[in-house]
Amino acid sequence: MQVLSRPPSGWPALVLNADFRPLSYYPLSIWPWEEVVKAVYQDRVDVVSTYDKVVRSPSMEFVLPSVIALKNYVDQDRQPAFTRFNVFLRDGFTCQYCHATEQLTFDHVVPRSRGGRTTWENIVAACSPCNLRKGGRTPQQAGMPLRRVPHRPNAWQLQEFGRRFPPHYLHQSWLDYLYWDIELEP
Predict the structure, then answer these.
(1) Which pTM does this prediction carry?
(2) DSSP letter string, 136-170
(3) Mind listing the pLDDT tens digit for each residue in 137-168?
């Protein structure tokens, strides 16, 4: 991971909840500068830190924020949506049969042909070769034990899983609000 002293391309701002924690770690909660300016003028956010960049209109100038905090707290205890991305995040973007990281698909642990449903507790990430090999059988019938039993994660667990995947770059002004072990590059 690279820590930038110059702003990232596009001048994005790190978005923090009202408690000064990032809204999400993966993907990292950042907004484009245009959305940030709009949110500032709608009085939905507080500016915590700024870049040295000024944007101008005919009637005013505005220093671009690098970190903003929402004025209203967004509840993080809500149940996460069942999405392909969230299933892959829960499973660490690895096949739950062989640990491959390429060609990931959904796999129904109990196949749909046998009454299996599309739920957190019955779906795992699987690479295409494992998914094809397992076919319409259960893991036990196919001789393919699962690495982890699928479960419904809560929002905090998904946040924790997301911390395993830091972005390729971070701006220096964001470091006080992110909780990765970061090695600064010379």
Answers:
(1) 0.73
(2) TS-HHHHT---SS------HHHHHHHHTTS--SEE
(3) 999 999 999 999 999 999 889 988 888 887 87
